[in-house]
Amino acid sequence: MDLVIARPEGLYCPAGDFYIDPWRPVERAVITHAHGDHARGGNQHYLAAAPGEGILRARLGQDIHLQTLPYGERLLHHGVTLSFHPAGHVLGSAQVRLEYGGEVWVASGDYKIEPDGTCAPFEPVRCHTFITESTFGLPIYRWQPQAQVFAEINQWWQANIAAEKASVLFCYSFGKAQRILHGIDASLGPILAHGAVEPLNRVYREAGIRLPPTIYAGEVKKNDPIMRQALIIAPPSAGASTWMRRFGDYSDGFASGWMRLRGTRRRRGVDRGFVLSDHADWPGLLWAIEQTGAERVMVTHGSVAVLVRHLRERGLDAQGFSTEYGDHEEEHTDAAEVPA
Amino acid sequence: MKAFALLYAELDATTSSNAKLAAMQAYFAQAAPQDAAWAVYFLSGGRPRQLVPVRALRELAVTISGLSTWLFEESYQAVGDLAETISLVLPEAAHSSSEGLA
């Protein structure tokens, strides 16, 4: 029996009568993480991993009906045993493990293999059926160790300071921004954060994640000399806006897994592309799938057909699941990303 | 070759014409004359007659990367450039060479 099926509202568990990351409003929604394409407003009851509570409430409203569970703790609902396990994607992100009648399914949401210090690291969970993403499901996507990427960012920032230019680094405001803040060398100069990033920094700090001090960019005057030494963290949407004028002479960069391809970087029109993703790369996807021991794999979003075909060639029972999750990490629709 | 590769990376890492000019000035100030001549040839769009057929390059890339042919083709479709695709699927090279461009 299938523990999870695809319905127009989202991924549905018939035995437990609840949805996982539904894209239409439902009565019971189990949420893997707070990115806009996975956690949407309008559901009557929410269930999520405890470390994600602050972010979920900040994004969906303080008054949502939300129940939380610590990682690993089990909850019995209509005979289905449910638990959350770290997905290593962003703060509070979880894989959902479901057990019913001896059958175990794990829905991974989005996940990343390399631990980064801003969220609990990915833990493989044994299961019969694994529901996986495939955002970067092509062999061309292989990540360098993040220490190397942070060193590149530090170098770029230092060179810009020497040339008396501001360094504007575009990245997704929830998760990626905090990971960068956590990973870079904050002693190089002042760090400014865009209005979409700063509230999320606050939530991360409240959750006990160490982030260097940041200055809200809106508080800095247009010709303040600190601009020429500053690293500015801003969402991609700020790039085309008048918000950029305050920085005078600047160099810009974009941090995303898509920067692995020269073409995507050129189309962005930024000086520098930094290959940094909060998703698993191709070897990471294959490793995670293998670790689950699952013989059946459902692929939800990204390069679905490619991963399905590859897994079938390796003897697994793989198929695609049609969902409305985003497949471009830079294109998460996000109401919070208004210019500020 | 390394100095030229570095120059290319620098040219590629900025959208500012002044920064590109500065990178080229720095390169040509230190490049050996025979390397500099080749650098001018390449930077102005010159391409030597093809020494290795594209088909051989493709087949080698598939063999060395260990990918199925269809997976290599899917990758090429996503990247849009054969040389870049090959560079992205090959394993990290264990050896390095410091030969000049000429």
Task: Give a written overview of the molecule.
The complex is a heterodimer of chains A (340) and B (102). In chain A, the strands form 3 sheets. Chain A has a 7-stranded mixed sheet with strand order 7-8-9-10-11-18-19, covered by helices on one side. The longest helix of chain A has 17 residues, at 146-162. Chain A has helices at residues 53-60, 146-162, 176-183, 198-206, 262-268, 282-292, 304-313, and strands spanning 5-7, 10-13, 18-20, 28-31, 45-49, 66-69, 75-77, 80-86, 94-100, 103-107, 129-134, 166-170, 191-193, 215-216, 231-234, 250-255, 272-274, 296-302, 317-320. With 340 residues, chain A is α/β, with parallel strands linked by helices. Chain A contains 7 helices and 19 strands. Mean pLDDT of chain A is 93; it is low at 330-340. By secondary structure, chain B is mainly α. Helices cover 66% and strands 0% of the residues of chain B. Chain B is built from 6 helices and no strands. The radius of gyration of chain B is 16 Å and the shape is elongated. Chain B starts with a helix and ends in a 13-residue tail after the last helix. Classes of the chains: A alpha/beta (340), B mainly alpha (102). Chains A and B meet through helix 7 of A and helix 5 and helix 6 of B.
